[in-house]
């Protein structure tokens, strides 16, 4: 795979031309006056996606107009000049036309013939799926516009996704990174092909590439490994999950970790916080874990050597509002963290594990269990600190020091009438060095900041909020710290 030497083009009619590969790499453009096979391939592709031009290999006014029409449709500057962003948009549109039917995809993923899958569709327990993305894979941040006025001086998320790869701001940064090494270029091609016509995921992949996050390190190899392996057929048959969605959702989560959601009516705040912190600290490991639990065996070895297994009942979609990978991973984490998981498995439909539900009336991840699981996943040594043994001010001081060192600290806060896991992301200090406030993230994925503890939302939404440091010290119940 990737033997065309292109820089991410998935359409063979584009990837086979050397001039178009140079355009895709940002090393050239095509404009009026150009001639050759690359222009002919461009003209044919434009016609295929509904912007016809005369197919003669000469870049004239009609081709210029067709390119400008495509750019306008893609919300790009309508210059009529083909650059890397324009070619990537054209490539995505071609890929979308080739997306196989869901029945064919289901057959491939499950190792069945299309007729066998059709027969399954007539059974009473069949999943009625469509070729559209997951019904939980859209509209993640519609709540942001309705948030109340934030406190003055709120800061943007320092880890927010970079500008769009098509934007003017991103181009100098992308050029400064240089070309991908040939082996990495081939892996990007493999991931791109596996995504098919999933435009949001392809755009997220482009942003990761533009930001240099795929140029080195284990993230790209982890994504390529996921792209090259068939998913567990039960995901399709029992969950209606199109085969590419696990990879697509993983890429979009890596691009923007604020997509992670605990889910409505689910006591999975600890698992949601763990998923979010792992995305922030080690996204390649999160991809590796997701890859493992969604393969046929349904399990993966963690860094501690222990196995993380996905409960079978986590596969069918529920009413929690989570995307598929949130449901699958959080259920696996809840199951692993259960004190008696060798007897009582976590039950996603009922959101309980029987043992803790019997003791406390609900499902929860106790502080010690959370720390043990976090250590299994992250490797190294982690410890629990609790206000049961020390003052809240002392626990908050430990958390603040860890955050100042660059850690994202999972913290258990006294929340309304109970407890709630959140991630502490930043400590804001005054000119005298004294901690004044903290930025935290609620795994709900949104927070209108009503009810105790006192807090206020920050502009980017996605569940991030600010609270006074004194209130953090008053409401903190425990935390998991490195070392």
From TrEMBL:
Gene3D superfamilies: PGBD-like superfamily/PGBD. Residues 36-90 form the Peptidoglycan binding-like domain. It comes from the Bacteria. It holds the Pfam family PG_binding_1. This is Peptidoglycan binding-like domain-containing protein. It comes from Sorangium cellulosum (Polyangium cellulosum). The lineage of its organism: Bacteria, Pseudomonadati, Myxococcota, Polyangia, Polyangiales.
């Amino acid at each position: 795979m990737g033997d065309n030497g292109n820089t991410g083009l998935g359409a063979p009619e584009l990837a086979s031309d050397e001039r178009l590969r140079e355009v895709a790499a940002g090393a050239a453009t095509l404009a009026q006056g150009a001639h050759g096979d690359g222009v002919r391939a461009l003209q044919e592709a434009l016609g295929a996606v509904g912007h016809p031009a005369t197919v003669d290999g000469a870049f004239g006014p009609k081709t210029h107009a067709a390119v400008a029409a495509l750019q306008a449709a893609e919300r790009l500057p309508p210059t009529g000049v083909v650059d890397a962003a324009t070619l990537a948009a054209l490539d995505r549109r071609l890929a979308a036309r080739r997306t196989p039917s869901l029945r064919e995809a289901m057959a491939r993923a499950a190792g069945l013939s299309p007729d066998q899958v059709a027969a399954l569709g007539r059974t009473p327990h069949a999943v009625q799926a469509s070729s559209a993305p997951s019904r939980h894979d859209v509209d993640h941040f519609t709540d942001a516009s309705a948030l109340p006025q934030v406190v003055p001086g709120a800061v943007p998320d320092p880890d927010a996704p970079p500008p769009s790869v098509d934007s003017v701001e991103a181009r100098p940064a992308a050029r400064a990174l240089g070309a991908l090494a040939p082996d990495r270029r081939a892996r990007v091609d493999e991931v791109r092909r596996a995504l098919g016509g999933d435009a949001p995921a392809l755009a997220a992949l482009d942003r990761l590439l533009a930001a240099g996050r795929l140029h080195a390190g284990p993230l790209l190899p982890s994504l390529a490994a996921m792209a090259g392996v068939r998913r567990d057929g039960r995901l399709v048959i029992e969950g209606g999950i199109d085969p590419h969605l696990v990879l697509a959702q993983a890429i979009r989560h890596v691009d923007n970790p604020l997509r992670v959601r605990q889910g409505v009516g689910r006591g999975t705040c600890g698992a949601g916080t763990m998923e979010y912190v792992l995305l922030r600290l080690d996204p390649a490991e999160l991809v590796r874990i997701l890859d493992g639990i969604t393969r046929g065996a349904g399990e993966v070895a963690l860094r501690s050597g222990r196995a993380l297994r996905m409960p079978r009942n986590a596969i069918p979609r529920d009413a929690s509002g989570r995307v598929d990978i949130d449901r699958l991973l959080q259920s696996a984490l809840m199951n692993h963290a259960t004190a008696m998981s060798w007897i009582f498995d976590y039950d996603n439909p009922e959101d309980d594990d029987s043992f803790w539900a019997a003791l406390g009336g609900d499902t929860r991840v106790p502080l010690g269990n959370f720390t043990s699981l976090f250590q299994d996943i992250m490797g190294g040594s982690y410890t629990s600190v609790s206000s049961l043994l020390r003052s809240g001010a002392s626990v908050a001081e430990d958390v603040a020091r860890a955050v100042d060192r660059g850690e994202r600290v999972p913290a258990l806060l006294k929340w309304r009438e109970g407890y709630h896991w959140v991630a502490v992301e930043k400590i804001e200090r005054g000119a005298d060095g004294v901690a004044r406030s903290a930025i935290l993230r609620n795994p709900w994925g949104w927070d209108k900041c009503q009810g105790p503890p006192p807090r206020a939302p920050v502009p980017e939404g996605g569940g991030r909020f600010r609270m006074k440091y004194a209130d953090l010290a008053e409401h903190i119940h425990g935390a998991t710290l490195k070392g």
